[in-house]
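Bug: token stream looks shifted between consecutive jobs. Job 1:
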Amino acid sequence: MSRPGEAVSRLDGEELGDQFEAFIHAPFKSDCAAERNATSLAMQLTLKDASGSEGHALLLGDLAYETIAKIFAYSEDHDRPERLAWEVLLAPHHCSKRAMYVSEDGKDVLMHDLLGALSRHAADGAVVVVSSSTFRSEDEPGDNPPHNMARHRYEELVEKVVVTAEHGGAGSPQPVVFTVGPGGLVLVPPVEAEEGADLGKAVVAGGLGFAIGGLLGLLIDRWAASRRERPTDQASPPGPRGLNRVRQAVRAARGEDAAPQQPVGFGRA
């Protein structure tokens, strides 16, 4: 089991540290009995190309302000700012205002400390990706995400906010694709990405790329390539592979097939 404060560079038993690393930030142990969104997996992904360049993305799940602020405070207090670096931020909970606003006396109050933390660790030219449907013209009380008020704050923070439902045209959106370069993750224009061949293989514009929402496909492809390159006399481990292996491990850990009845959290308090 991997816990917050640990990095993962193995996929399905294959060591891919020269290409991929996921540093786990949350959920914290103290969130184990919290509502489902508060137990979201939060991590920093690092992707590397053959030249040694690295790209960083922060994926903060469906977390709200309290846990996100704890993530930044914990890593800053433990002198590991590199684990907070990002060129790409996937806006928490589909651009929910709860990532940066808290309710006080029935009013939404902006938490400037969170915006400051995001800004401190953002690279020049950083991009915020919003995985959501198209935005309403204005927010109404009780609306589910995406929230315009959160989008406006992100637009003040970075030069570009990319909405998956609008990228390349609201009528026919294109995959959101990045490539690793000397400056980290760089957004590939939609037309170039579309012409860049199979996004599942994620080799775009001569670099290592990934599509938000399709990162797993990239990693599986890179893993498959490493297996193809492995000497033929190196035997594969016995038993199921891929998702079947994950399912088997989950069943073994639970002791049964039934889904858990309580939210699950783990790691440091």
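Job 2, same session, no restart:
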Amino acid sequence: MKILPVLAKVFRHRKRPVGLSWRVDETYVKVGGEWKYLYRAVDKLGWTVDFVLTARCDEAAARRFFKRAMDRHEVPESITIDKSGANTAAVLGLINDSGVSIVLRQSKYLDNMVEQDHRAIKRVVRPMLGFKSFCCAARTIAGIETIHMIRKGQIACPKGQAMSAAEQFYSLAA
């Protein structure tokens, strides 16, 4: 379990840049018998922008997620969310505070790409029947997301070199 955050950190340094049109949504994960919230963002091409596991689904949690994603990547031109009040308030608050121009689109159908992307994470998490601790859940999900991003081809490989997913994973550990 201790190696997963290290691999995720190394991956972030070698991750390819993402697009400027994001789709953001949250999903539920059972931790210690309670539902926790996994915020996720993908770009227009389906590449994972960022993810974070939080205890609550409120404006403060959504704002932390957006701030973290924008710190790690360029500020997006547009963000598509569902009709969630917490996400709406968080994005509008960030726009007002920082003065950046972001087009906020709200549609429950335009974020289907991130909804479909949740399935890959849920497929791995469901057989676990939940996690015992929040720390364990965050670390495991970081590992699952890292492997998922490697499968999508989000790791920057040396030019002219084709690497399998396994070789890309081993290159992170080296």
